[in-house]
Design goal:
827 residues, 6-stranded antiparallel beta sheet, 30 strands, alpha+beta, 30 helices, 7-stranded mixed beta sheet
């Protein structure tokens, strides 16, 4: 049976790197699929553990020149502690022995000198708190290290450290490259040089000064050579290989000419044939571009970081009448936690004591705080506004809604969209093709164009450094990362790049009526009394008491109405359910009959001389309401109009769907007449009525057979098959109770505006991806021929290698910066 695991890939620099890993690992026996994301620097591996191991995959990736760090398998977690109270090796050994012998602990390693401990354990068998308690019982103290188990923050810190190192490397690169540029080109711009450096008077000093200024720049960009040349020798050249070969050729040619000058060559002629500045300025400019690219890419994870920061680091545990501050990772199901006003709720649970309002906007997008009282659910990361709450922990750690949302977004950011396949295929062959074109162009100008070696070398270098596989590799994944992160901030979970692309191509939106267009909970819309029989409040009281033991949705609506009026309901002395008709009951000695008109006729009830009540019935039914009749003591007393109220935003949302060129379709199990009433209110022209839940998927399939791209919007529970069958399944939840695992897209807020947000964001993301692909291909399709001297053939200029390298560096920055615009998307 296949398993799926994710790994961090270190050492990738361009699309050629990610493409090579995908092809090589994807071709291994036992590997079903390997998807590498250049922007996220991750690999999603689906494999058969009986055929191949993750260690074997990691070794193969290492052979390719990269490093793979796989997730900890089997649900094993790590706990890093700072330990106190140790005095000798016996102390550290005691902690290792005590903790290591605990059931569920996989390993225990204590470092006496650093006073730290690293423990691996199975959280299903033992908790973090139990491990720390065992250490305390042994006579030692412990504190959780701040970065324990936080893989995301660790990776981000690594990226920030790498960015800092890149920034430091820019200082010597430009500190020496700029004077070198002035020295080598200044005399051509009319800038006089001192006699001891002027090539007309001191050509050797002129050359040696350039060499001295070039060497520190070469050293600052040594990673291009240390990574690019081995990759070329392994048969998998990448962008670093292009830079290394291009700048290396210019540097070695210049070094050779300098050596000839030392050994008596034509010093004045050779001094005019040096290209040190090309190599140095290229390295400086490309390094600057890579720094800007890395800085921009770091911002693509800002949305995830902001979500993760919602959860507090500590929680206040109520234990034995005391308030104890503990790390949130140590909270266990069943714990009672105190949440003061202005604090964030640590984990998912329910209110045990207290009343307050909780701001859930950061998770669901709902703008108004939600009132909470004992028994109500709360989610970790949400903000308690004004009252103190005692919360009973229920879901902790990776099981909380916040953790699941973060995981879903991370998985989506590591996924690929089908539109990226073309770029991936091209990038695999791109670098070898560019090398071939560069060599062919240089040789053609030398042998066919009789242009001389210096000119041919310039052409070779320009072609090598203008080619940009990075831009092609980043075009799609960075847009997906930013769009999915922005969606999570707006209360829309988009689960993959495929979903983004498919949602952008949708032309038909199927909306389930109950729970989607309507609230999904019948409520009493109105009560009409039959003239001269009973007071309205008395009718509500008796009807609700009779229905109080029924679980029917219509019965619950009547009971809720009575509760809202503050009526205390007695239990009926007698209760009988009449299938398909209603109920009969005895309340306070009075005989109650309540149900549809068929039940009334069976018991001989009619409206008597009241001519208005039949008109009320006709009015209610024309509005799509269900009429429930109430009779007591052998008289028809009241009509209860019960309706599943339409969401107020439904007509506006449907109108905006139509304006966007989409066709809305309503799907319901209701009869045609009732369904048409709701559809007319919402503004939907196409209605499919009388469809049972198990046949909804067939109706979606029928629409697809007509050539439509279908999105199905439902609650993700009773219409799961239809959501799965649609091109895009969109599950609409109700605040923090939403099932985040259902559908391809999940709307966290119980508001249809989320549907517009999801579809608009998907279309914006696809436009962004197409813009990125256009620029990535345009840079290369236009730049490479120009660098090869195509314009010069017709009497035009050639492309200076320094300008070519700058253009290449800026192409990646342009693509990433364009994708970052999605951070500011508003529906």
């Amino acid at each position: 049976m296949s398993e799926t695991i994710q790994a961090q890939i270190k050492g990738m620099h361009c699309a050629a790197c990610s493409g090579r890993i995908e092809r090589v690992i994807g071709g291994m026996d036992g590997v079903d699929e390997a998807t590498v994301n250049l922007a996220a620097e991750t690999m999603r591996l689906t494999y058969d553990p009986d055929t191949v191991t993750t260690d074997a995959v990691a070794d193969r990736i290492k052979e390719l020149g990269f490093e793979a760090v796989f997730e900890t398998p089997g649900g094993i977690e790590k706990l890093n502690l700072s330990l106190g109270g140790m005095h000798c090796a016996a102390c550290s050994a005691r902690i290792e022995r005590v903790v290591g012998n605990m059931s569920g602990v996989d390993s225990a390693a204590v470092n006496l000198a650093a006073e730290t401990g690293a423990f691996s354990f199975d959280p299903s068998q033992i908790s973090r708190r139990a491990i720390r308690q065992a250490i305390a019982d042994a006579g030692f103290t412990s504190e959780v290290q701040s970065d324990a188990g936080n893989l995301f923050e660790k990776r981000r810190q690594e990226a920030e450290d790498k960015l800092t190192a890149q920034k430091r490397a820019l200082i010597p690169a430009f500190l020496f490259a700029l004077p070198l540029l002035v020295l080598s080109m200044g005399h051509m711009w009319g800038m006089p040089l001192p006699a001891f450096l002027d090539p007309a008077h001191s050509p050797l000093a002129f050359a040696l000064a350039q060499l001295a200024l070039t060497l520190p720049v070469i050293w600052s960009g040594r990673h291009f050579y240390l990574q690019g040349i081995p990759a070329l020798l392994r048969g998998g050249p990448n962008m670093d290989s292009l830079v290394a070969m291009g700048t290396g050729a210019a540097f070695l040619y210049s070094l050779w000419n300098t050596a000839l000058m030392l050994f008596g060559g034509d010093a004045h002629g050779l001094a005019m044939d040096l290209y040190y500045e090309s190599a140095a300025v290229l390295i400086a400019m490309i390094s600057l571009g890579k720094y800007f690219e890395a800085r921009s890419r770091l911002k693509t994870s800002d949305a995830i970081r902001s979500l993760m920061r919602l959860a507090p680091d500590t929680a206040i545990l109520l234990r034995d009448g005391e308030q104890v501050s503990i790390p949130v990772d140590e909270v266990e199901p069943g714990d009672l936690l105190l949440v003061r006003p202005g604090e964030r709720i640590p984990v998912d649970g329910s209110v045990a004591e207290g009343r307050s309002s909780v701001d859930e906007s950061m998770l669901t997008g709902e703008p108004m705080p939600v009132g909470k009282e004992p028994g109500d659910p709360v989610a970790g990361g949400t903000l308690n506004t004004h009252g103190a709450l005692t919360v009973k922990a229920e879901r902790v750690g990776a099981d909380t809604m916040l953790a699941r949302i973060v995981k879903l977004v991370q998985e989506a950011q590591g996924s690929k969209a089908p539109i990226a396949n073309l770029a991936d295929r091209i990038s695999f062959y791109f670098v070898p093709s560019v090398m071939t074109i560069a060599l062919a162009a240089g040789l053609a100008w030398y042998f066919i164009g009789s242009a001389g070696f210096p000119f041919s070398l310039r052409i070779f270098v320009a072609v090598m450094v203008i080619a940009c596989p990075c831009a092609m590799g980043l075009a799609t994944p960075v847009s997906i990362m930013v769009a999915t992160g922005r969606g999570a901030q707006l209360g829309v979970l988009i689960k993959s790049g495929r979903t983004l692309q498919e949602a952008g191509d949708i032309d038909t939106v199927v909306l389930d009526k109950t729970g989607t267009l309507t609230y999904g909970r019948p409520e009493v819309a109105d009560v009409t009394m039959v003239r001269g029989t009973m007071a309205r409040t008395e009718a509500v009281f008796l009807a609700a008491a009779a229905e109080s033991v029924s679980e029917h949705p219509l019965a619950r609506a009547v009971v809720r109405m009575a509760e809202q009026k503050g009526l205390e309901l007695p239990a009926p002395e007698h209760f009988e359910a009449v299938p398909g008709r209603g109920v009969k009951a005895t309340v306070n000695g009075r005989e109650i009959v309540m149900g549809n008109w068929a039940l009334m006729r069976e018991n001989g009830f009619d409206f008597g001389e009241d001519g208005l009540s039949p008109q009320a019935v006709a009015h209610y039914e024309s509005q799509g309401a269900t009429v429930v009749y109430f009779a007591s003591d052998n008289k028809l007393n009241a009509l209860f109009a019960i309706a599943d109220e339409m969401r107020p935003e439904a007509p506006e949302v449907v109108a905006r769907l139509k304006k966007a060129g989409l066709t809305p379709v309503m799907l319901t199990g209701d009869g045609e007449a009732n369904a048409r009433v709701v559809a007319d209110k919402a503004g939907i022209d196409t209605v499919v009525a009388g469809v049972l839940p198990d046949r909804k998927a067939e109706e979606v399939e029928r629409l697809q057979a007509e050539g439509r791209k279908v999105a199905m919007v439902g609650d993700g529970i009773n219409d799961a098959p239809a959501l799965a069958r649609a091109d895009i399944g969109i599950a609409m939840g109700s605040g923090i109770d939403v099932a985040v695992d259902s559908g391809d897209m999940v709307l966290m807020q119980s508001d249809l505006h989320g549907l517009l947000t999801g579809l608009s964001l998907s279309r914006a993301a696809m436009r962004n991806i197409k813009e990125n692909l256009f620029w990535a291909f345009a840079f290369n399709v236009i730049g490479i021929p120009v660098a090869a001297g195509l314009l010069h053939v017709f009497g035009g200029p050639t492309l200076n290698p320094m300008i070519a390298g700058t253009a290449m560096a800026m192409s990646s920055v342009t693509v990433v910066s364009n994708a970052l615009r999605l951070r500011f998307f508003t529906p």
